[in-house]
Amino acid sequence: GQYKGDPTGTVQLTAGAAGDNHFGTKFAAGKAYPFQQISGHRDGFNTQCPGGSLYGQLPAIRSLAGGSVTGLTIASVTGASASGSTYYTRSAVTVGWKATTPAAFVKSYELLVGGKPVATVKGNVTTAAATLALGKHSVQVRATHQSGKVTTSPAATVVAERTAPAFTTKPALTLRTGTVNTAAVPVTLRWKATDTTALKEVRLTAPVARTYGPTTGSASHTAKSGKATAWRMTAYDHAGNTAAASVSGTPVILQETAAKKTGKWASKSSAGYLGGKSLSSSTKNASLSWTFTGRSAAWVVSRASTSGQAYVYVDGKKVATVDLKSSSTKYRDAIWTKSWSSSAKHTVKIVVVGTKGRPALTTDGLVYLK
Q1: Angle at 254 between CA 173 and CA 316, to 5 degrees
Q2: Which residues are CB-contacts of 29 (< 8 A; sequence separation ≥ 6)?
Q3: pTM for the full model?
Q4: What is the pLDDT of residues 70-97, one digit of tens each?
């Protein structure tokens, strides 16, 4: 220990006079007897000192004073983010640790990187900083007890890297099904981000703030019609490297009155319709068509239990048969969508099927994304 003796060992003491101790052991003057390095007064004299309570703790005191540092583990790596059992950082970290041995019995701690000390602190300090070179490192803490015995913690793996994530699929915006309002047009935002080591998350920073996990690649949102909106995203890896990407889009609502009509259509009024009006027809082969330049389109309808069916044509080709029947009444419902990889001129045409027993359909316009 601090006084050059082994607290867990023994020492020979010579009796200065004849006598006995608290336990009845007799000593002859001039004869040597073995004693624990840390002993109680009662071990050599007929006294109760140091008392039963303290005397019972002497084995633990010997262990603390003469043993190694116990319970030594790394508790934190500040400046790094963990993915599984591995920490990732750009370079600088502060390592924190803990031990069950009281600080008074610890002489010093060393921070080891790759088995070599990079920082040394006193026994009452439990953090140390290091700057790591790029690459994978084994980080440990080594404790020196006042007895001189050394303990080393289990290793933590820390990777220092500065390669930024990448958006392998840039953010893209499309229209989706759902209820349409002028202030809230349903859209889907899609992306794909990757990282060479460990992608942590992707954050949407505008027009709203959201955080998505590393495996998420799409999210439902709404956008205001007639307003160009930039959707900005940042990908983060566990080391703190980032990559940014964005996409802009403007939803445009084309009222039913903007459509080219064939056949018989009747105008209907209700506060539930977009702009307060819609067009309805029960005439087989009656049609409405809209021409626009954009990259996504959604047909908006009103639905009820008596609603019929419609054929949908895109650029002259039939692409879908859509059934508007619904057990509950729905207004401003984007029931069908179509998207393209880039903006171009398109024509969407809807044709009344004339479904038997429920031929009517009510259309509330078309939304496209430019």
Answers
A1: 80
A2: 15, 16, 17, 18
A3: 0.80
A4: 999 999 999 999 999 999 999 999 999 9
- Reduced to 3 states (helix: H, G, I; strand: E, B; else coil), residue 22 is coil
Chain centre to alpha carbon of residue 66: 45
Structural domains of the chain in order of their starting residue, each with its CATH number: 10-66 (no CATH), 73-160 (2.60.40.10), 166-249 (2.60.40.10), 253-369 (2.60.120.260)
Amino acid at 45: F
The model's pLDDT over 98-141, given as tens digits with 9 standing for 90+, comes to 999 999 999 999 999 999 999 999 999 999 999 999 999 999 99
* Separation of alpha carbons 128 and 138, rounded Å: 15
Q: Which residues contact 211 (CB under 8 A, 6 or more apart)?
A: 201, 202, 203, 204
- Residue 336 is encoded by which pair of tokens? 């069908």
Distances (CA, A) of 265 to 144, 261, 270: 90, 8, 16
What is the signed CA dihedral for 163, 168, 172, 174, rounded to 10 degrees? -140
CA 190 to chain centre: 18
3-state class (DSSP) for residue 352: strand
Give me the sign of the Cα torsion angle 198, 201, 204, 205. negative
Q: Is 104 helix (H, G, I), strand (E, B) or coil?
A: helix
| pLDDT tens readout for residues 270-308 | 999 998 999 999 999 999 999 999 999 999 999 999 999
